[in-house]
Amino acid sequence: MSIKRSDIESIAHLARLALSEPEIPRYIDELSRILGLVEQLTRVDTSAVTPMAHPLPGQRQRLRADAVTETDQHQLYQRNAPQVSTGLYLVPRVIE
Questions:
Q1: Where does 5-43 sit in CATH, by number?
Q2: Which is more confidently placed, 85 or 55?
């Protein structure tokens, strides 16, 4: 798939990018190659491939132990709050 200069300018405008004149041809080439690869991938027949629920079938993902590493410092943090009541932050009512 080929991208036109107007496409690059439109994308740059939407992304709020200021592209210089020498950059535009490079972006046209690079985005055209990326879209060409995506187009090539969509043509691959995947009808015989079974969907996977996990990328490592029969294996388990190693997770770290769920252990407390920080001490409870909520009283220290609440000292900076303008208003606190029974361990909760009090905030002004926004919706009436």
A1: 1.10.20
A2: 85
